[in-house]
Amino acid sequence: MSELPLPPATRRLGNSDIEVSPIAWGMWRLAEDGRTAADAARLVHAALDAGITFLDTADIYGFDGKSGFGDAEALLGEVLAGDASLRDKMVLATKGGILPPLPYDQSADYLREAIDNSLSRLKVDSVDLWQIHRPDILAHPQETARVLDDAVASGKVKALGVSNFTIAQTAALQHFLGHKLATTQPEISPLRIDCFENGELDQAMMLGLTPMAWSPLGGGRLAAPETARDKAVAAALDAVAEAQGVSRTVAAYSWLMAHPAGIIPIIGSQNPARIAEGAQALTVRWTRTEWYAVLVAARGVPLP
Fold first, then answer.
1. Is 61 annotated in the active site?
2. How far is Cα 202 from Cα 260, in angstroms, rounded to an integer?
3. Most exposed residue of 64, 162, 182, 264, measured as fewest CB within 10 angstroms of its CB?
4. Which of 61, 104, 253, 292 is catalytic?
5. Which residues, at least 6 apart from 140, have a Cβ–Cβ distance to it below 8 Å?
6. Averaged pLDDT, 199-215
7. Is residue 125 included in any domain, yes or no?
């Protein structure tokens, strides 16, 4: 039985010249649990030592509903300031466009401020990828595009992306941009399969966008499945995991990575061992039968 191809050693971000590891590490919980810069540095090194060079954060990470806005970026900034050699070893991505206590803001003035503030907290002159975190329905995409194009032209941002955008919102922003989008970041997991069938991944392939999957483990539900559907998906993943000597977590990452759109799963763990474990996903082979078995379990109905 033929096997699907393994992911490449590196992937290119969209049509940019930026090469990244085919799996990423995300920092939405970096600033929790009283972590110090030394603690954060250990996590950064765990990712880099495992060959995970793509690091994703956001200005909202660390916000608890009342305070903490920017804390994850600031903590990573301390790490980068403490070891100047780290910056060149990573591809650094962040996001903006959410303004507590307001929901979303992509007005020109706020976006310019958000980008500058992120650079200041991270203590860097530029980021490799800057993404709009969630779409602002009150912002005209042409106005948003002007700000993003200016950020690229100024050297503050090398590549652009969106997160949680609909197909139409992505297309509208792409239409007005001179520096075209490189990435899209939806929620994708073996328990969240909307993107496979609603056209989002088809659009990504058509536009040349690299998809980044947030919450690739279904918000932790794959680790402790409770519903019949979740248990069925876990069992389908376990069949491959056990045969190849990896964890269910690794199997879940690799299942996403087998898709032809080149999905990059974002590891959300803040545990060094779990971060390093994720790199094993590059070695897992899937057959079409095994891959579709997971999809059928997630859909809950047989293939037509």
1. yes
2. 10
3. 64
4. 61
5. none
6. 98
7. yes
Q: Are 252 and 216 in contact (CB under 8 A)?
A: yes
Residues 6+ apart with CB under 8 A from 5: 258
Q: Is residue 186 part of a domain?
A: yes
CATH code, domain with 188: 3.20.20.100
Q: d(Cα 207, Cα 171) in Å, to the nearest integer?
A: 9
Q: pLDDT by residue (tens digit) across 74-131? A: 999 999 999 999 999 999 999 999 999 889 999 999 999 999 999 999 999 999 999 9
Which one-letter amino acid corresponds to residue 2? S
**What's the number of domains the chain is made of?**
1
Q: Which two tokens stand for residue 217?
A: 């483990």
Write the DSSP assignment of the chain as a string of letters: --BPPPPPS-EE-TTSS-EE-SSEEE-TTTT-TT--HHHHHHHHHHHHHTT--EEE--TTTT--SSS-TTHHHHHHHHHHHH-TTSGGGSEEEEEE-B-TTSSB---HHHHHHHHHHHHHHHT-S-EEEEEE-S--TTS-HHHHHHHHHHHHHTTSEEEEEEES--HHHHHHHHHH-SS---EEE-B-BTTB-HHHHSSHHHHHHHHTPEEEEBSTTTTTTTTS--SHHHHHHHHHHHHHHHHHT--HHHHHHHHHHTSTT--EEEE----HHHHHHGGGGGG---BHHHHHHHHHHHHTS---
What confidence category does residue 182 fall into, taking pLDDT thresholds of 50, 70 and 90? very high
> Is 234 domain-assigned?
no
